[in-house]
Design a protein that fits this description.
The protein has about 70 residues and is α/β, with parallel strands linked by helices. It has 3 helices and 3 strands. It has a 3-stranded parallel beta sheet with strand order 2-1-3, sandwiched between helices. β1, α1 (about 10-20) and β2 form a beta-alpha-beta unit. α2 (about 35-45) runs parallel beside α3 (about 60-70).
């Protein structure tokens, strides 16, 4: 099954997006991450089909996350 990784530091927005997308659980699984570093850690452990990311996040921001994905998971 496909997995959608959502990287969002605002826990309310992250929960809202996860809840909204849960109605499609028969099509894909949502994997939440609270910042870019957690998203990178998840990417190292499991394949992801789609990444949705916030740009401004602590530790690792969305642009660095996208650069990492482009380099390591094209």
């Amino acid at each position: 099954m496909d997995k959608v990784l959502i990287a969002e530091d605002d826990r309310i927005h992250l929960k809202r997006m996860t809840t909204i997308l849960s109605k499609y659980r028969d099509k894909f699984h949502v994997v939440p991450a609270v910042d870019g570093q957690e998203a990178i850690d998840i990417l190292k452990q499991q394949p992801i089909s789609l990444l949705v990311t916030d740009i401004q996040m602590p530790r690792v921001d969305g642009l660095v996350l996208l650069a990492h994905v482009n380099e390591h998971h094209p």
